[in-house]
């Protein structure tokens, strides 16, 4: 099957690196999902939003359409995009271990890429608030974008509008698989939007939260996808370090008999 056409450019591949780290943004790097927060507080509310997520998990709807409905409910209530960004700056915080995790990657020349089903401007707004504008602008973000009309109404611009995911995150990972010497790929995620990428990383970290939805974990258990559960990037860092330093193998970490052959089968 041909990959979905992208309406937005991709950053250059890190073709010379031995390790690459990719991470979901909402609910993984952030302590709460920023789009859920906007929907719950500015849109049609938590109950309807959660019901929509469950229809996606059940295969009755796709993420693209469910997420569009969430964002449309915010616009319908009269909230501008600038207002949304300001609300997120004030209310969204990041995982307490993320700064040290990112600092270690940077010190060891390991690329870090945010792969999100949200929108670049809202992600940048929170990142700049946390890391500062200069540092935030150095981080590659592969996400959707936003279109804003003259009257202030706005809508999400999907990276892959023909895909049921809106942004098929696997397309951020698969090009690395085609390299002559592909790097070891770490992917971090937590929710419904990460399902498209879950099968394609060498080491999949799945974030769980007490009392949270934990949709990606449920999906991986159901589909028997090997993964590492974590609750904080401070827990994940030693595991990544052990692989980078050669102290452990991918097989050691994910606890499965991983070979190129069965990795390929798992990804089909």
What does this structure look like?
This is HAD-like protein. It comes from Fistulina hepatica ATCC 64428. InterPro entries: HAD-like_hydrolase_phosphatase, HAD-like_sf, HAD_hydro_PyrdxlP_Pase-like, HAD_sf. Keywords: Hydrolase. The protein has 268 residues and is an alpha/beta fold. The chain has a domain at 19-30 and 95-259: 3-Layer(aba) Sandwich (Rossmann fold). The chain is built from 12 helices and 7 strands. The chain has helices spanning 34-42, 46-57, 63-76, 81-91, 98-107, 120-131, 133-137, 170-177, 215-223, 233-244, 250-254, 260-267, and strands at 19-23, 112-119, 140-148, 154-157, 184-189, 203-207, 228-230. A 7-stranded mixed sheet has the order 4-3-2-1-5-6-7, with helices on both faces. Strand 3 (140-148) and strand 4 form a beta hairpin. The longest helix is centred in the first third of the chain and has 14 residues, at 63-76. The radius of gyration is 18 Å and the shape is globular. It starts with 18 loop residues before the first strand and ends with a helix. Residues 257-268 have low confidence and may be disordered.
Query: Biggest sheet, open or closed, and with what strands and sense?
Result: 7 strands, mixed
CATH class of the domain at 19-30 and 95-259: Alpha Beta
Count all strands and give the number. Answer: 7
Total helical segments: 12
Instruction: List segments where confidence is low: pLDDT < 50 over at least 5 consecutive residues.
Output: 257-268
Please give the alpha-carbon distance between the first and last residues.
11 Å
Rg, Cα atoms, Å: 18 Å
Helix content: 40-55%
What is the H-and-E element order?
Answer: EHHHHHEHHEEHEEHEHHH
